[in-house]
Amino acid sequence: MADSLVIIPTYNEKENIEKIIRKVCSLPVPFHILIVDDGSPDGTANIVKSLQDEFHECLFIEERKGKLGLGTAYIHGFKWALQREYEFIFEMDADFSHNPDDLIRLRENCIENADMSIGSRYIKGVNVVNWPMSRVLMSYFASVYVRFVTGIDIQDATAGFVCFRRRVLERIPLDKIRFVGYAFQIEMKFTAIKYGFKVDEVPIIFTDRTEGTSKMSTSIFKEAFFGVIQLKISSWTRKYK
Fold first, then answer.
1. Phi/psi at 226 (nearest 5 deg)?
2. What's the angle, vertex CA 146, arms to CA 145 and CA 147, rounded to 5?
3. Calpha distance 116→167 (Å, rounded)
4. What's the Cα-to-Cα distance from 96 to each of 60, 65, 177, 197, 205, rounded to whole Å?
5. H/E/C letters for each residue in 190-239?
6. What is the DSSP string of 167-195?
7. Of 176, 145, 162, 16, which Cα lies nearest the Cα of 89?
8. Residues near 3 by Cβ (< 8 Å), separated by ≥ 6?
């Protein structure tokens, strides 16, 4: 029985989904995978279901109707995981921008040192491959902005490659998490720190997708920019017990 669950939200990832499942299931440490698919019209969910006979012990899928957002997909996955006995619960993209081999390093860091481990692009310089300079600068200075506004000492505040210990997700009131895009990633880190959990960064190399299309949009960027201010202001009156 694996003690670790990797949650992978998907929307139109038919080019990547089988390869990422095979890679995670081949790792020397056992991981289970939960795909949360938002009604992908390209048949991503059908590919996953076709693999379940082969990977019946480690592969699960939850299907939702419509594109409901990254944050709600992870919240759905977190609740699913907490109904079971997983101790380590991961966020990871389907497109190989996060190296599945690093799952082991994030898990080890939580065992040894942290309540929440972040796969960080910026803890040791800038470790990003195949991004245009404009996007590197936007991402890097987004984290600078988050640190300035919120006061949290996280170098990669928008990182989406994360390992949580179970107790973190049990403590955070998941139904009160408000954001759905990259602001969701910031909110989860900020909230974990406010609840007193130890959040640590593990250096990774981030490689931009080579197949499929990015889900970045102007609305997601705006949510993150203004959401950080809302997050800080609301924390002034919120009690973190």
1. -80, -25
2. 90
3. 10
4. 19, 25, 27, 28, 11
5. HHHHHCCCCEEEEECCEECCCCCCCCCCHHHHHHHHHHHHHHHHHHCCCC
6. HHHHHS-GGG----SHHHHHHHHHHHHHT
7. 162
8. 85, 86, 87, 88
Residue type, 132: P
Percent of the chain clearing pLDDT 90 (strictly above): 77
Please state, in angstroms and rounded to a whole number, the distance separating the CA atoms of residues 211 and 147: 32
How is residue 141 written in tokens?
């200075």
pLDDT of amino acid 109: 98
91 beta partners = 7, 162
Confidence of residue 195 (pLDDT cuts 50, 70, 90): very high
Q: Measure the CA–CA gap between 15 and 21, rounded to whole angstroms.
A: 12
Which runs of E-coded beta strand occur in 11-85? 32-37, 59-63
d(CA 186, CA 168): 15
Average pLDDT taken over every residue of the chain: 93
Question: Closest Cα partner for 44 from 11, 83, 72?
Answer: 11
- Asked if 27 contacts 1 with a C-beta cutoff of 8 angstroms, the reply is no
For 22-61, what is each residue's pLDDT tens digit? Answer: 999 999 999 999 999 999 999 999 999 999 999 999 999 9
Nearest Cα neighbor of 69 from 227, 217, 226 is 217
**pTM of the full predicted structure?**
0.93
Window from 62-76, 93-107, 139-153, 204-218 with minimum mean pLDDT:
204-218
Pull the structure tokens for residue 146. 């988050």
2-10 average pLDDT score:
97
Average the pLDDT over 204-230 and give the result.
76
